């Protein structure tokens, strides 16, 4: 299990190398953008994009927001998007595109902490996969937590959801398969919920729903709500959100180190 091809990308930054990588998933070639530090890799951030096709595509600038000298950041494109083979199934077999990439990186850097960040559509992409992978935490940012809520909220996306998944009543099983909450348990990795109160693309009720379910299940989580922000925070609010996310990762890693020391 490894990347089968690497293509150097024309992104010049002092401490990292950008490459478009290809890897095999279910017999097809899937691509993603990899940002590798020049120094040793101590932390891995998996950025799960939102949108579909060119909307919400993985960009170098987005990966760089999570970088530091010892952090590797990777964003899978998902099958059927941006040169990846196959068809995007919107939380179907494209979930394997996330899982396989993480297992490859875990094999390459077994001592590095892994944190997943699911943005928008990527929120549910992460919730459906994170608890079965070697990750330290999951950050859901402006993310979808329930596909039925998404269907109800985004009238403009119902046509796309019907084409890709079906109608919630007529294709009930397809929606049940995309219900992440039933797979989360009390011992699942901790979750940080980040959301804007004025988000009209993914309403904050998606965050409230997840918060309620995690309380019921007993999963450790924290919330960071910016009530005056939309789907993408304004620059000063983005700085605050990124600082909170990075501090969360550091705190989780320190707790893990303490747990290892006390064994």
From TrEMBL:
Protein name: S9 family peptidase
All copies of domain Peptidase S9 prolyl oligopeptidase catalytic, residue ranges: 117-250
Originating species: Staphylococcus nepalensis
Pfam families, sorted: Peptidase_S9
InterPro entries to which the protein is assigned, alphabetical: AB_hydrolase_fold, Peptidase_S9_cat
